[in-house]
Structure formats: C-alpha cells, structure tokens
C-alpha cells in the first residue's frame, strides 16, 4: 500500500477533475477543492460525465467501479477543510505564477505537516514555486496528460530540495492510480511530453496568426502526414482554450499575438473548447 492514501486535488477544471476521478477510481479517498460553490456545481457535472466516459471506454468500469469512484469524491470550497486529512495535495489551478504562488501560501498555512504537495503545472518549473510552499523538501511536480485514463503518463520531477523519499512515494502513488510514472532526472520546463508537444502547438498558432492556413487545413495536414489521430487545434480544444491562452501569454511576440486571437475570437464568445461544446471546432 502506498504511503500517500488521502488525496486532495486543488482545481476542478478539465484536468483537475480527471486527476481526481482517476485517483478515486483506483480506490483513494479524494477531496476535490475549488474556490466557489458555482465552480463545484460545474465540477459535479464534470464528474458525472467522466463516470459516463469511463463506463464507455474503460474495461470494467461499467460493473459499478465508475459509480464507486463518484462515491469516493467529496467536494469542498473550504481550503482548510479540504486538506485537513490529506497525505498528498495535487495542485491543478490556472497556469499563472501569481495564482499558484498565492495558492501555495494559503495551503501552507492550513495543511498538516506531513502533507506532500505536487504541482500539475505544465510549463512552470517546480523550483520557481518551492519557496511559496513552505516545505520545499515535500514538494515536486506530478504532471498528467489530458484524458488521463487513456494517456496515462505521470511525469514526476523534483527540485534540488525534494526529499528522495518523497519522490519515491509519489512514484508509488502514481502507479497505484493506474498511471505510468515517468521519472525525470532534472528540472526541465515542459517536462518530456510538453517539450515535444509545445513546439508543434506554437508552430500551428503562428501559421494561423500569419494567415497561412485555417485550423482545419493545418490539422488535416498533420493527421495525414504523420498518422496522428488529432491535429494541433483539436489538441487545443481538448486542453481548453483558457489554458492555451494563459500559456501563450507567457511566450514571445508571436505567441502573445496568438493569445490575443484566441481571446477575441473564442474565449470572449464563450468558446473554450470541448468542455463548452465549441472551440476551434463545434462539438454540439
């Protein structure tokens, strides 16, 4: 049995809700935290949809396991309540350094001393957040890919301060939840997966803002040329355009231009990707 049993997930967006459900599906008690009752109401809908997805796509989930997972998830908008019994807190809040640092400062004040903190940040180095956690030895990155039940990598990346025993415990935890731990030897922005994926997405964004081609043509070219099941703009829709916007805003001039395009044409129109039924493509 892994040392990290009771889990709290901070943030119930697209990926946070998946992390929480996957963890509960594999037998862990989970508290899903978000900042408001409205956010938790949306989370309830996401969890119900995930249960349906697991029943349709995951072997054995239709035999009651998906329903049992729902019963292991408790929702809370009170941070102290959410983490009071946590062995592990997985942070999946928006990809903005100031939001993450503020979250950790508040978390450090209320979490038990033994609790391990893990960030699911896809671009930020954990060392840039370590000081704000108040416990750098018990802090590291645990990065998931979207559709965690299918793309089940869990990238584990520590900092110079991470206790090796904590690192080992997080690797064991990842295995206990049906994930494949990817042990990264030293810090690298983007980890392994996004170091490979982000250049593709950036190139697609530049092609769009420069008026070279529309998303459909760019995606079709990638799918035909590589045999990949999805093109970059389909990936953007799955990740969510809010995340795409936040990450692009931290990039260079071209990426910021792409972020402005996303905001004006899509986010401001309520088109956030698959989660809202429409992004670059319509899913209604």
Automatic annotation (TrEMBL):
Taxon lineage: Bacteria, Bacillati, Actinomycetota, Actinomycetes, Micrococcales
EC numbers for this chain: 1.1.1.35
Pathways involved: Lipid metabolism; butanoate metabolism; Lipid metabolism; fatty acid beta-oxidation
Residue numbers marked as site, Important for catalytic activity: 143
Keywords annotated in UniProt: Fatty acid metabolism, Lipid metabolism, NAD, Oxidoreductase
Reactions catalysed, as given in the entry: a (3S)-3-hydroxyacyl-CoA + NAD(+) = a 3-oxoacyl-CoA + NADH + H(+)
Annotated signal peptide: none
SUPFAM superfamilies the record matches: 6-phosphogluconate dehydrogenase C-terminal domain-like (SSF48179), NAD(P)-binding Rossmann-fold domains (SSF51735)
Origin species: Agromyces sp. G08B096
GO molecular function: (3S)-3-hydroxyacyl-CoA dehydrogenase (NAD+) activity; NAD+ binding
UniProt protein name: 3-hydroxyacyl-CoA dehydrogenase
Domain 3-hydroxyacyl-CoA dehydrogenase C-terminal: 190-283
